[in-house]
Amino acid sequence: xxxxxxxxxxxxxxxxxxxxRAIAERLAADGATVAITYNASRAGAEEAVAAMGKxxxxxxxxxxxxxxxxxxxxxxxxxxxxxxxxxGGKALDILVNNAGNPGWAGLSDATPDAWDAIVAVHxxxxxxxxxxxxxxxxxxxxxxxxSSGLSTRPQPAAAIYSAAKAAINTLTxxxxxxxxxxxxxxxxxxxxxxxxxxxxxxxxxxxxxxxxEADTALGRFGEPSDIAAVAAFLASDDGRWVTGQVIEASxxxxx
Length: 255
Description:
globular; oxidoreductase; 43% helix
């Protein structure tokens, strides 16, 4: 990998597994000092950090329950302390809002609690993460939000999740306009079907897998590293003229 992000700092929420981990690993491989957040699995986060260290990267983990937006300022206070110890400063160059929770709740089986939990993590938390990051973000910094193909092609079985991801798209546009004067770019990456824990049950159904692959121009499920490559581009100097965009990374699903 290149060292395109040497000297940069990054925070990836939900970075202990799946797409978030792949993004964290890619940013670390490109030279950034990477903080990841985890909710429940400290062991998983420690394993991810160890793997990045073994590969020559610099990473550390912070616990955060993003269901509680009120806890976000304290998360950034802890980030400040950790970055100061590791880098000698508190500046944050890259914020990746990736954390998520299961979103399979449709009209017939959804509850108010399910609505609140899905929207809190996928839409509310990124907004308040950016709010708390503002005083730390370097001019010319990067914000990358994780959206979904379901934001524009919603599924009835994931109605709340689809709506929350549509909100992220709109939020991305609004923040790009607000932060452009500081040279901060704000973009969203919208994965299609990607091999993660969230769709493990789907991938156990051979007929569904065959149908999804047939509807995908490149003929396969995405890998987390495919999404990480797009995020790495947006985080790098090569992405400096891209902002306010929702970039679908689906392999051409249902073109």
